[in-house]
Amino acid sequence: MNILFYTFLFLLLCSIFVYGYFFYPFGLYLLSIFVGRERRFDFGDISQCKFDVVLSVRDETSRIKRRIDNLLSLPLSSAINKVIVIDDGSSDSTSRIVERYPKGKVVIVKLRSNSGKPFALNCANIVSRKGIVYYIDARQVFDQKALVSILGALSDARVGAVSGQLLPSKSRHGIGAGIDTYWRIERFIRRVESKLGACIGCTGAMYAVKKKLYQPLPSDTILDDVVTPLEVLKRNFFVKYDIQAIAYDEQPLTAANESRRKSRTIAGNFQMLFRYPENFSMGFAKSFMYYSHKVSRVLAPFTLPIIFVMPLLLLHYPVFLYLFYLQLLFYFLVLISFFIKQSFFSKISAFAFMNLMVFSAFYKFLRGAYRSGW
């Protein structure tokens, strides 16, 4: 009886660990075969559309001009009612650069102190007067279809929010190369979820929301680009992922850069898990995708210590002895993967890196390291 129970528990923990990384993406792949092509939108009815663009910044002297110039040079930029720049207590010349643009087109709201991006977004939605609000970041550069494609998707009355696609600069070696594989899987997951109308999360660098669906964010919100689209889903509107709307990110996929980004993202997932239990009652399909995409990956690494220890309690059974040896081999490969710059080992090192970041992010979440600011 004990051996059956331990075997079941061991297999259950292993399944929990691999589910979010392998079973869910593979299940989506099979589903994508039957779902078919994503709907194409007719852009003809958006030619007279007006919308506001929100750019929240802090100390962006080196990038703010390039960001606004790129935005105003895009097709359909004439439909931008206002570019609303929220300067969140910058100590450099960011605001002076913004003030050089025509005041009817680009407006700046100066906040006296560093209040954080969620507070800045809430302020922007008070200033905005249009039915669609397009949120962007300062670091990226947009492709020519970045405005047209997303607004075309929002012309559908059932669609409440649309995310663009972020393409970071690639890394050819080490952990960065492995992280690039992770990003490709992540973009695939979003594409298939989008076909079902429920993309779980948007790309913070470029997403648009119908203003009537925007809910003010708590000032300590870590992931506005996930909390906001989930609120849209709760109100029974679709959230789409538009692969035609592309933002190019100059920041390369290095371990240091990804550590900062991933730590914040995972901490935000923990925050949502405890703050919004209603995310599990959005309806079976949407709640299932939320758990699979956002929750399962932050829970998975906590099963690893138990999976490692369990065979030690049952070494007199050959099968558990072999399972223990397999784990030792796996961790040995993880160790050497940080030193060998080859494709196979870079994927292993990236996978280990992602899981280690969960423990770091959970610790920072408990400490409240992301309560406000940038």
Characteristics:
alpha/beta, single chain, 374 residues
Distance between the termini: 54 Å
Write down the overall mean pLDDT: 87
Taken as a percent bin, the fraction of beta residues is 15-25%
- For the biggest β-sheet, the strand order reads 3-2-1-4-7-6-8-5
Q: Tally the beta strands.
A: 8
Q: Characterize the biggest β-sheet.
A: 8 strands, mixed
Order of helices and strands: HEHEHEHEEHEHEHEHHHHH
**Structural class estimated from helices and strands:** alpha/beta
Provide a count of the helices. 12
Radius of gyration: 22 Å
Shape: elongated
What report would you give on this structure?
With 374 residues, the protein is of the alpha/beta class. The chain has one domain. It is built from 12 helices and 8 strands. It has helices spanning 2-35, 64-72, 94-98, 117-127, 148-154, 174-195, 224-234, 255-275, 284-299, 304-309, 318-337, 343-367, and strands at 51-57, 80-88, 106-111, 132-136, 141-142, 159-169, 206-210, 238-252. Helix 3 links the parallel strand 2 (80-88) and strand 3 (106-111). The longest helix has 34 residues, at 2-35. The model has no long low-confidence stretch (mean pLDDT 87).
